[in-house]
## 1
Amino acid sequence: MVKEYTHYINGEHVAGKSGRFQDVFNPSTGEVSAKTPLATTAEVEEAIAAAQAAFPEWSATSIVQRSRIMTRFTQLLYEKQPELAELVSREHGKVIEDAMGSVLRGIEVAEFACGIPHLQKGEFSDNASREIDIFSMRKPLGVVAGITPFNFPAMIPLWMACMAMVTGNTVVLKPSEKDPGCPMRLAELWVEAGGPKGVLNVVNGDKEAVDCLLTDERIKAVSFVGSTAIAKYVYATATAHGKRCQAMGGAKNHMLIMPDADLENVANALMGAAYGSAGERCMAISVGVCVGDEVADRLVEMLKPRVEALKIGPSLERDLEMGPLVTAEHRQKVMNYIQMGVEEGAELVVDGRGFSVPGHDNGFFLGGSLFDRVKPDMKSYKDEIFGPVLQLVRVQSFEEGMALASDHEYGNGTSIFTHNGAAARTYADKVEVGMVGINVPIPVPLAFHSFGGWKQSAFGDHNQFGMEAVRFYTKVKTITSRWPSSIIETDFSIPTLK
Ligand code: NAD
């Protein structure tokens, strides 16, 4: 029997009523493992109403109590980390050790959120004017929506939900319809940890559900992570309806490899950063920019045998390096880009097409692919491929390499590998990209910093998690207060400080 997912509204599982479903696959076998109900507008409105009803009590709950509930939630997440990772691995296809790590990166945000009594403090100016104090506080917004992509079904829902809830908001989460198992479990765990019902609701769905969240006037803010085309649409629609919106989009992350870099370190870093999670990471390195032909020649020599020997198999097996892609459709899209690269004249050093795992012939597997001599005017360079494909570009100078990353329409992450401190510092300072690694291939900041790209990789002006999320999920109220010890005189001019 194929499992049928539900929605999770006001702490209860609610069966989908639309009669529309999306298949969830086990990408390692190609079999349909579950069906996701696609909510109607009326079903999303039910979830919004539950969140709206829970808001007055939750926002009035003391900040210390909210922090304690978040602490219990965090403890439960740690306990359930293996179970959550298995759900991620089973539906997304990333190998189990990688899935464990991705869950942990979400738990780290829950941990950070436990410090909310300190983080959400306002400001106070004593005697700002004579006998007048000014103070400000950060108030929750109300009901907020989270809309998440398929590639991190634990981490990204946790980024959004933990920070939104702990600041006093209630949440309607709309996870990817491709792998909703883990986000559904997170909402159950919230209630098991003592979180009030209605504070975290999950509706499953597609465009119809998203459109309702973007336009319903009870939703005060929308946090979105996904592809750039949808991010732009979400940002334009949500803001046109008067909402706060942060919308993170796609990526094409470059690693600049200087002639003085330790190429063994570079090869080790590139293998994990390009092929880990089958390249389905918004912070994957998909372009290696080699400064000088000698660097490129040596790197190709080092990478070729390693890409050919990648350990690929069913995601729940141990000690593998790569699992399958999420769906057959996505695998086809990646294969089309490989073909495009060949037709555009890039040199395909390793071709991952035609790869299969014995006994798992219907799994959505693809081997690793490596391109050399990719040129910046090729469409396969300009577009995000989002698969296990690494493209090497040859440049003759640091400046030419930095310009590639800066001029690319995406600006999520980038890294530089070098022994030259001045080059590293200049790169970090000048490159037009939101997150930079120095001898670190995937510079995803920890929970006490924040995550966000530039250019076509992010729309809106607050990053995910860290203090940026406290700001995104709260609005400032400022109070000017006087307890007069003498008569207040009439003043017809604008009040000025005395
Ligand atoms: P996607 O844009 O297809 O889907 C993201 C969400 O939008 C899903 O919940 C989906 O149901 C919804 N959606 C899809 N089509 C829609 C439509 N027409 N109207 C309204 N909503 C719609 O993205 P995906 O394929 O799930 O995820 C992969 C993409 O996400 C990649 O481009 C990747 O780079 C990006 N990503 C970005 C970041 C980041 O922080 N910048 C992080 C992770 C993933």
## 2
Amino acid sequence: MPSSTSVDLTHHLSTETRLRKPNPMKAIWRLTRRKPKMISLANGDPHFSLYPIRRVEFEVASVGEDIENPVQTWRTSGPSAPSQRFVSTTDGPSSLPLKSALQYSAGAGLPDAQRAVTELTNHYHSPPDHHTTLTLGNSDGVAKCFRLLGEPGDHFLADEFSFSSLTNAPLSHGIKWVSVKIDQGGLVPEDLERILSNWNEEEQGRRPHVLYTVPCGQNPTGCTLSVERRKKIYALAQRFDFIIIEDDPYYYLQYESPDDNVDCTSKDFKFIPSFLSMDVDGRVMRVDSFSKIMAPGMRLGWITSNFAFHDALVTLTDSSTHHPHAFGQIFITEMLFAEGGWSIAGFDRWVRSLRDEYKRRRDFFVDSFYNEVARSGYASAELPEAGMFLWMKVHLQKHPRFRTYKNGDGNAPGPKTNTKELMEELFERCLDGGVVVMPASVFLVPEAAKTTDEDPIEDRLNFFRLTFAGPEDTMVPALEILGQVLKEFFTEK
Ligand code: PMP
Ligand code: PLP
């Protein structure tokens, strides 16, 4: 990648990161790679002749140019769907022979697999000067970023409703959250600016120096940040010196083009520019995953960051999980580089076709949602522009037992309505009816510092997250139940 970034951002690294010493055994292990014929008596590396595996073959969907819609063909043609095969054998001629793939390697991943994700990153984001580190998926990737940057007592910023399986992760390291307002367009840059410019370090401690955000098809709200908002947020990151952790597992599932003149199913459709693509300083840690575009059980992803952060991530990895398993690394390497593999062009055809498939599911789900649920006027939703979630708003003010100013005169801090209780009741009724939804309360940023009491978040819990990731044949029955439960709930005597 060309030109190097000029800003030294190492002051963002946590004490834990600074104190962590490189794994001394890995340092010696690296020396065995110094010369081609180095004989190692140093490491207890099991010899490849003792691995009980001789050959691994992957049979994957064909993405040939003759197949117009590879995902649909794969999904609907069953065992007769055209396929491609990649093979890795002990000693080659594979792109990544088992002999080297199954051996220990360094925390960044096997060089060939690292090259595979670097090429993907360059193709979609062209960052100025960044380095990739393989992970076990975005949960692992983001949790590692938190540890890299978070000091006990630090405040991190996140969308006020966020992916709780990750916002929970740094709490035990003493990180506190500050929640940033969101609207239909996602995180509101003006609220971010308000929080940062009003921050009083004497009273509140160090100003938040990390923003965790999901820019496409945000989980749970389904929002996607516009290019304009991304630019504003990046400018704020430069002005207030914070790091952006861009957790972007739904990047490829974008349904609306940022350019109004291009249909999103057209070959000319360009994915929305990521934070990484605008990162001249090296202050973005982009976290990518194969979970939503291949399979979640692959447990494989990668972080793209500046070199200093990459180096610290490798040290953390060398002392914790170590590099990801060989099979996933072989898969992505063969997929991109093997003769007869997908190559980047084929990967691009797959993800665009996958996007078309999810778009079809979204449209079907949204139509059914309007017919079965929203038509009653008790609920509504915005059209998600990316991802796999619909953020359903329940119009609780229409409920006969909806109460305002529960806490007396309305000036008391905290909730001013009984939204939380009614939503808990509605959730139970959905379960009784036979459908599970995700309540908004699950996504509240945990123990977030209150930045304003004017519009308490407890009064804005009147949402459920619904997914359209599943098959169509379960969507209509589920939405019928939801519509019926809502009607009964709102028209109770
Ligand atoms: N603990 C001990 C005592 C070891 O000898 C080794 C391997 N050298 C490990 C842990 C690392 O094991 P793994 O490859 O399963 O991470
Ligand atoms: N981050 C977000 C925003 C997600 O929605 C998910 C999956 O639901 C993940 C991370 C977890 O991804 P992975 O399977 O790569 O760990």
